[in-house]
Amino acid sequence: MDEVEEVEVVVAHAERATLRVGGVFLKVDADRARTDAEVEAMSLAPVPTPEILWRKPPVLAIAAVPGATLGRLGGAAAGSPAGWAAAGAAIRKLHDAPPPARTGRAGRSSAVLAAELDAECALLVAEGVLPADLVARNRRVAEAALRPWTPAFTHGDLQIAHVFLDGDQVTGIIDWSEAGRGDALYDLATFTLGHEEHLDEVLAGYGADVDLDVIHAWWSARSLLAVRWLAEHGFDPFAPGCEVDVLRSRM
Length: 251
Known about the structure:
The chain is α+β, with helices and mostly antiparallel strands. The chain is 41% helix and 18% strand. It has a single domain (66-249), classed as Aminoglycoside phosphotransferase (APH), C-terminal lobe (Aminoglycoside 3'-phosphotransferase, Chain: A, domain 2).
């Protein structure tokens, strides 16, 4: 009997799951549109992406990419300043590319985002999840994200755990299901969320003037919108360095 590789559950919740078997990742998603978006985005992105091995809905099989991530939210960050700058340069290359026709997570209109924030803030307070003053302060900070922006090719979920480097070279960016047209500063804020100390290094590689107030606004907005969802899906936004600490840092 052939030896069977150990199966690792990378992430799993009601909407989707990712398993790793050796050098293969199996992504299972109940929403075929997300997988369609992921496959299209990887075919268009001008940055390294995983090789698609096969697809049989609802499963997408992709190859592991070489290298290691810069860390994760809530954990210690790794990598040299040159590595963070290389990530910034890759993000800029993505943002400069012609965007897909699809609107991604980072492409919500200001009106839609404002309504989502107001509704979520009300629930956070009403359900006693967060103190009212913490929510109110961050809602005010988040207001700076509600402004006109030029559509860019955005990843939409650019956590540092989704960017792999070998030394100071980007070897792959994974998890493209939220990609599409959107606000470039959303990606930059997501990538530096909880790791503010590396923002200057990322922007040095990105090579463009960036409104820091908007980056700060997206840190607040993204965290406010994520806290309840994370808690309901088995994650801990109250862990050190995670979303609630990001909100507290705005105080």
